[in-house]
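Why predict the complex rather than its parts? Because the way molecules touch one another can change local conformation, and only a joint prediction can capture that. The input here totals 964 residues.
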Amino acid sequence: MKLFTTALTTTLAATALFSSAAYADGEKIAVFTKNLTNPYFQMVRLGADNAAKTMNAVTQNYVPTKPDSIPEQMSQIEDVAVKKPNAIVFIPVDYKAMATGVAKLNAANIPVVNITDRSESGKFVSFIGTDDYSLGLETGRFMLKTMGGKGNVVILEGVKASLSNVDRVRGFKKALDENPGVKLIAQQPANYQRLQALQVMENLMQTFPQIDGVLAGNDAMATGVIEAMDAANRKALVIGINGSKEAIDAIKAGKMLASGDPGGFEQGCLGTMVAIRELRKLPVPKEILFPAFVIHKGNYQAFDIAADKRVCPKYEDLVKK
Amino acid sequence: MKSTLRIAALAAELKTIGYRLAAALAICVVLTFLSDAFLTTNNLMNVLRQASLLFLLASGLTLVILTAGLDLSVGANIGLSACIAASIMKLTGSALLGAACGVGIGLTIGLANGLLVALMRMPPFIATYGMLWVVHGITYWFMAGTTLYGFPPAFRALGSGYFLGVPIPVYLMFVFLTLGAFFSQRTTYGQEIYAIGANREAARLSGVPIVKRLILVYAVSGAMAGLASLVFLARMNSAEGDIGEAFTLPAIAAALIGGTSLFGGIGTVSGTLVGALILTLVLNGMNLLTIDASWQPLVTGVIVLLAVFFDTLTRRGEEARK
Amino acid sequence: MNDSTIALNSPSALWAGLSRVPGVAWILGFLVIGFAFATGDFLSGPNLLNIGLQSVILLMLALPMTLIIMTEGVDISMGALLTLASVVLAWVLAHDGSLMLALAASLAIGLVFGLANGMLVAWLKMPPFVVTLGTMGMAEGLALLFTDGQSIVVANDTLAAVYGGSLLGIPQTLLIGAIAYVFTHWLLYHTRFGTYIFALGGNPDALSLAGIRTNAYLIAVYAFGGLMTGLAALILTSRMSSGHPTAAIGMEFDAIAAVVVGGTSFEHGNGWLFGTLLGVLAVGALRNGLNLLTVPSSVQVSCIGLLVIVALLIDGFKGKK
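Output of the joint prediction:
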């Protein structure tokens, strides 16, 4: 029976139209994200749900109950290997430490699409993500250009261990290297947390009477910085990363300069589409890196809609992007 | 007779607070030498404002610890209270209604803790740990990964406003310091709470309504978490599901550094204030000197150990003299 | 707890027998039956094996925790200590140390912290919660500083074989867990050390009046906790093939919950080691079953809290009768 199906699918693979009709029957796609609290992962889940719905598949979400817990995601992988969904869309909570987990999924012969953070090892149908380095670089460049290539700048880092933080900060630093007139006066971690960013900023403002720009590793920290600045009646250009609704409203109000958009919603969409297409034996790309996109005053309108109202772009458009 | 006892108690209290204030001052002196920015009005206001949120949370917790209890759910409580208050405010536009709901949710969680601990006689540690998970779950479900932001300016003054050059939360801190000190030191309720912590059986025999008082302290602790959540909202102008997580252990640490004993019956709300100040000064100093914040958990751990170690030594010394 | 021989020949005797079954056994029973009906995968061999494997690390913390709680103490540094030991173990392996050397380092760290906890508690009469809160901060900080927030990846087959390998057809991890359980059981119920632990919680004064050096035993209990944590670090590291600076933060609270749910009380040296095993399995079965049923994560979070509260409620109501 199994041999027969394999033979059948191989034959059908040639005619894409045929097979997509034949296999459009509610595949189960397990979606792994890092936590329940960060809006970015909510965007990924919404994108995945939306894509699955339009393609007549269903998603099942696996999120650690303790945010970013490695042992818990490991257990969820083991549980999923028993449950055997048709395919998996996977964000590792840690890009290094989940290697054994990925090996288990590979051993269970479940196709896995890796999105957002590139896992260090394992076999994947494809990787879909944004280059965090160029995201940091482009958003940083945008701010430094607006500053006219001179002034004092502070970097607020996210969670030290995370891949996104390492790459974003590397991008920020590269942008700073290109602008020798700008001085990096402090670099502190605020763990992607709003309150920590606010307090760190309040303290830094005491030491440094002149801060012209702040490069924050995500939008939550950027809004914390803005609150601190407002309360002290000081002004600085602030950028964040994530392209969250909150950041877009702040850009609209002129409080935030820009936010780098990693395209969480699109990543969720495309990751799920690729997983389903793989199951339906349609051609899929090996790797898609969304170009770094900087949302600013001039272009925010396209992003100014509620998260749950967004609809996935067409597959062809996403791949072209 | 009674007044001499009271004077002796006051003297002992002043002594324990005195040591701690001296320690806090020592940190200040060191920081003044190391950083020009430290001894400025702005920075000191900063420290006070940052300490206020921690103190509001830790003050209610202090009462719980005085009864030899513990409340691990305060951080989760802040998260849910803030999120509900925020969504009510967004929905109705009424800051007052939102604030009332925030404190109300905090109070409800506290009451539930109190019922489990006092009526069902569950170990506080475990009952409030279970509550922590239940409350987190509700918060995550309610927020579904979103962020609520943008509140009325009148409400925001509670967190980021000034009066006569002093931040509003600092006034709140001193109001609740006074209330807490009066309640615990000068009322029968307060005496009874100390009595329960010192020796529960003796307190019961002398007619202290233990169940009622325990429910009261957990309810107060919950309501203070609700209030702290409002100050957080007003300061940050936004809320998401995980905001409370970082608060629980620092709040417990503040009470412990402030001289409150986990065995119950010993400690003061004013000590907790000094504890909160010491923890805040450490973070402030690290930022001013741009020291990597990774050192923070380690330094906090050492301070907690030193403070309690010191307390144990002095208490033993006093007992030996008696 | 040898109630299995009760004659169930009349309804009242049956009731009397049932009411002696502790809350945790009820809960575990209900969970197993409920999940078995709800999803066919639950009782499958691979899934039961999963629950067992996933529970071993928690069990290895919960076993010594039972002893510690029986002395009216608590150790909240275990999760942070497990993390620190794990990154050190990974570091030694990554620098070409042998597995034995790495394990020795991990055990040594566990022993040092355990001894420190014990000495501060026993000699200085400091509250165990405070002592271990302090050492927890230190272990957490050291793990962060030691790794600079990065994972330490270990590509070492010997290490991977610890978690994945099996001996005589039985997975090694399960064997290690079983040995840990049997050893702790022997220690608690068949040695003088165990007898003193019961006495330490029940009536320490009588013990010291009898001329027994209570402090030495108290220190030994915490040292045992440290050693078991060091051993658990081997399994954790092997499971992830890496060390991560926040991997097990907070796990001590799960262990404490499992112990108390299992019927050990914070007062009077009432301890039940088998109950701890049941408590650990109840937590494991609940998480696993909810994952299989793909219950939303937010509901899972609340369910874990409810498990703890309900187990205590059952015991509380039975206590009143």
